Amino acid sequence: MKSTRCLLLILCLGLLPGLLLRAHAQSPVVSLQPAQQQWLDEHRSLRVGLVLQAPYAQFDRRLQQLYGANVEVVTWLGQALRLDLTWRNFPDQAALEQALRMGEIDFAPGLTQTQASLRLWLFSDPYMRVPQLLVGPRSGAVAVELEKLGASERLAVRMLSTLADYLRSNYASLNLQGVPNERTALQWVIGGQAAYAVVDEAQLSRLSREGEFADLAVVGDIGLPQLLRIGSRLDWPQLAEVLEAGLQAMPAKTLEQIHQRWLQPKYPRFAESAGFWQNLALLCALLLLCSLATLAWQRRQQRYLERSLLATREQLNERRSREESLRLSQFSLDQSTIGILWVNWDSHVRYANHAAERMLGYAEGELLERPLIDFEPTLHMDRWLELWKRVRSTAGADEHFESHCRRADGSLLPVDLSLSFLRFRDAEYLVVFLTDVTERRRALAALRESEAQLKGIAGNVPGLVFRLERDPAEGGLEFPYISEGSEALVGYTPAAIQHPQMGLRNLVHADDRADYHRVQDLALAHDLDWSWQGRIVTREGEQRWADIKASSRRLGNGRVVWDGVVWDITQSKRAELELARSQEQLRELSAHLESVREEEKARIAREVHDELGQMLTVLKLEVSMCELAYAELDPGLHERLASMKRLIAQLFQLVRDVATALRPPILDAGIASAIEWQARRFEARTQIPCLVQVPDTLPALSDAKATGLFRVLQEALTNVIRHAQAHTVQIELVHTPGQLRMTVIDDGVGFAPEQARPTSFGLVGMRERVLMLGGSMSLDSEPGEGTSLSVAIALEQEEGE
After folding, report:
1. Residue of 164, 271, 153, 288 whose CA lies nearest to 222
2. Peptide bond into 55 cis (omega under 30)
3. Which of 306, 535, 666, 775 is deepest in the core (most CB within 10 A)?
4. Residue 48 is part of which domain span?
């Protein structure tokens, strides 16, 4: 029976190259760019490195031939790219990478991309995905979700692996049981020591061919697949491009066939139909009945051999796993950036990693068997034994302190020392962790210097410098910093202002506190800058004017702080208030003078109209009587009297114009009639159409306000004549509750208000006249867009009357 099985194996292996050649003959031609094709023509002979691991790559010693999934992929690429391949196989990944460093291979398939491997290889895109499967008993197999597994259901997984770290970090509730290899994981499931096992598809495909694991089935997918890539030499980027082009040209069906042939396990998945497996079970039962007699005697002979081989294989796998774990641990220790020393009770170093040797300036191996006092003078034997006893008696608790180590050249290195107890095999050690804190101390010194400079600057600022933060836990406000200038400004120490019951709010005058709260609360709610001016009260009860400004700043942890300063503006504020009072007095005086002037104008206008009018009327009567009595006696006298009558008529008109200019009589008819009359005079004088819109009824205005509004209209129309070059003018009078608004709009050339001359007394006079009336004026103009003048006068006083 053994010879029959060997014959079948030889026949299959003999047919495999033919099948591969047949597949290669049908492979498409790989299209390369000219530069890639030229490089490939110059490098047809390439060396392939393989790690012998079933089912990716195996070597048949009898046939002296390689076979496996990666072998088929590279054979297809070699045929498609017409390469002359030289195969080299290695026992593990470390030997493969050593061969790459020695320049003995050009590329290798079946690699996994990591941060460390990127320093050695140029990787292609993944050509095969090997999922991590969840395997359980076949009986009652259903879909299993990792989130729903309880702590009582053990999960066997190979420890010291990326998969174990992934499960531990993403499924904290899993009860993970570490095993050295995938075979042991499956055996735990069969033996009931674990409910499920996590095995990658490739290893499951290899192990599922053994009868020992026939009662297992796939019940889920972990979701962390292994992506296989082709890695090539770093100094040959053209080779990586050629291999990538070859992989892209490889048919997906070919890759799928390779995956099914080598990596597809024989276990049924939980989602496959029950009828299929029932038919398969019937077929297997028939085959079993046919071969039962043949297999009965074969099993008796193979059991002993299988048990021996299984035990040997388990021992080899366990030993290999331990060696791999030991190499990983050694590599991690050697490549650590923290210095690590294993020190015996006699304070002599038994192990030192590369980082410790670099820190202390010693060559490789020179630190071994040296006492700690050689490079840590404070760790004499008595202190070391005291530390040894303390750390050993509190195993699990570390001893931590800072010190200075003497380097090989005699210089001192500031370090952070941490001691931990370790029992390894039959020996006990204290593990000394060395961390270089040179940069940390420089940063702390720079920080202290910066803080000292800041305090010095803040202390010399003529005011109070503060920093305001919001407590993330309680949401309250706190002042982590108040400058020393607080005592000179308000009489309180920084500590007193920093008290939760004090703060800046309690310094604000009671009458101004509501406005301060409104400004500050708005800024704090939206993380904005804020500024406020008002009165504060010192510790002695003195009132001072203060200007508080604060700018917001977001820290790296997301917290928002406000840095601000409180300036004493008492002197400037008093001067400002005094100036405002002086301006108000000047405005009141100007209003009084304007009122007196308008009254004087009105009196003069009445006197001119009445007195001169009467005199001119009498004179005109006298001339007319002279004309009747003496005109016919002398023709020359008739002409002179007629000329005198014309002069008297002109004088009548001049008197009316003067009286009207001093105070138009139309004002007595109301502001609406006065505006209409002025618009008609403007049209007659300039021939510019003037549209007037006034309401039918208006409240009664005081003479001062009516006169002032009329004078503003006259000045506005005068500016239109002088500067606007307008084609039309629109005057609108609008009455709203408590307010009367007059708007004058022209379509002239316009101007930029900010560029108006400071000596433009027309605008200044209108604005001052409106302010004296207790109103407001706005001017809107742009070059080429015309001008709009709006005047608003309050009516509350008239309505109250």
Report:
1. 164
2. yes
3. 775
4. 18-128+228-262
Supply the pTM of this predicted model. 0.35
Which residue would you say has higher pLDDT here, 547 or 27? Answer: 547
**Pairing state of beta strands 45-51 and 84-90?**
parallel
Whether residue 81 lies inside any domain: the answer is yes
Query: Hey, what are 583's tokens?
Result: 């301006």
Residues 470 and 405 in one domain: no
- Alpha-carbon gap, residue 436 to 41, rounded angstroms: 53
Let me know the angle formed at the C-alpha of 377 by 374 and 382, rounded to the nearest 5 degrees: 100
The answer, yes or no, to whether residue 667 has pLDDT greater than 80, is no
Report how far apart, in Å, the C-alpha atoms of 447 and of each of 216, 441, 442, 444, 574 are. 63, 10, 8, 5, 42
269 has a pLDDT exceeding 60 = no
CATH of the domain at 756: 3.30.565.10
Q: Compute the C-alpha angle 710/713/717, nearest 5°.
A: 145
Average pLDDT for 608-628: 70
Distance CA 508, CA 500 (A): 16
Domain closes at, from 625, 643, 660: 660
- What pLDDT sits at residue 12? 43
- Of the candidates 371, 488, 477, the residue with the CA atom closest to the CA atom of residue 432: 371
**Model confidence at 458: pLDDT above 60:** no
Structural domain contains residue 302 = no
Identify whether the C-beta of residue 428 lies closer than 8 Å to the C-beta of residue 437.
no
pLDDT band (50, 70, 90) for residue 466:
confident
Handedness of CA 29, 34, 35, 40 (dihedral sign): positive
**472 preceded by a cis bond (ω within 30 of 0):** no
